[in-house]
Specification:
The protein has 297 residues and is mainly α. The protein contains 14 helices and two strands. The protein is 72% helix and 1% strand. The chain has a two-stranded antiparallel sheet. Strand 1 and strand 2 form a beta hairpin. The longest helix is centred in the C-terminal third of the chain and has 28 residues, at 203-230.
Length: 297
């Protein structure tokens, strides 16, 4: 397979997944209002890092990224639903998301909740309906099972609960890592492992990719904590300082800003070590890893 740079890779697959998201939601036999609310948040932009991780993992095995299109779209639906609910008055009470008014500010709280619910449930339907004959039924079941675990009480939702419960408390580093591994890391990790499962990875490869994704997920959140303190509000697309305002423990508050930066570099290094230990074409995954370390939004 001809090598391409990250810019070309990213443009191709972002356009692919965004077109699929628009088409698949638009064709639903459902009230136009709920489809409008779903698409409002899906089309708000973003890095699409989770789908890109899945596509890049497939390409590391020499597979076409298109093979994982439905799974990539499902992940983005789950991620978007979580953002809609995170922004609600009963949770983070945010007015902006990616530089636009949050879903509940446009559609009202009830429809925002329902839009999130619809995206969550539709994600599993999308995977089960994947048309490619190269994804056996047993792999689809495995993909759905692991996505449910990564996004539910054992994963993202559990992390959100621990995050809310930790507000106003002095958390230990282990407690903070639990929150971030579950709230952010599990879905990021699933994106990588799902690509490996679709590609037919063996047990050893799955373990290596899981280790890579674990460190990448922590690095992603550490960078997020840093940006919340020193990011540019216009670039980030939301207010800075929200963690401090909500009395949340963060990596800079526990480790100091310099300690947080050092921890970020350590996790980035460990993530790359996992990639280097496999005889696969992982250049795009390494570029994504660098993007996570250096992102400004």
């Amino acid at each position: 397979m001809k090598k391409v740079g990250f810019t070309t890779f990213s443009k191709k697959y972002k356009e692919l997944v965004e077109a699929y998201l628009n088409e698949s939601v638009s064709k639903l036999t459902a009230p136009s209002l709920i489809k409008e609310a779903m698409l409002y948040s899906l089309e708000a932009g973003g890095k699409r890092i989770r789908p890109l991780l899945l596509f890049a993992t497939l390409e590391a095995f020499g597979k076409k990224g298109e093979l994982g299109l439905e799974a990539a779209a499902a992940i983005e639906m789950i991620h978007t639903y979580s953002l809609i609910h995170d922004d609600l008055p009963s949770m983070d009470n945010d007015d902006l998301r990616r530089g636009k008014p949050t879903n509940h500010k446009v559609f009202g709280e009830a429809y925002a909740i329902l839009a999130g619910d619809a995206l969550l449930t539709y994600s599993f339907q999308v995977i089960s309906s994947a048309s490619s004959e190269q994804i056996p039924a047993e792999v689809k079941i495995q993909l759905i099972t692991e996505l449910a675990k990564a996004s539910g009480a054992e994963g993202m939702v559990g992390g959100q609960v621990a995050d809310m419960d930790g507000e106003g408390k002095d958390l230990s580093l282990d407690e903070l890592e639990y929150i971030h591994i579950h709230k952010t890391g599990k879905l990021l990790a699933y994106s990588v492992v799902a690509g490996a499962m679709i590609a037919g990875a063996n047990t050893h490869q799955l373990e290596k990719f899981a280790t890579f994704a674990h460190h990448l997920g922590l690095a992603f959140q550490i960078r997020d904590d840093i940006l919340d303190l020193e990011g540019d509000e216009e670039i980030i697309g939301k207010k800075v300082g929200s963690d401090e305002q909500n009395n949340k423990s963060t990596y800079p508050s526990l480790l100091t800003m310099e300690g947080a930066r050092q921890s970020l570099l350590e996790h980035i290094s460990l993530a790359k070590d996992s990639l280097n230990s496999m005889e696969l074409e992982t250049d795009i995954l390494k570029e994504i890893t660098d993007l996570v370390a250096n992102r400004n939004h």
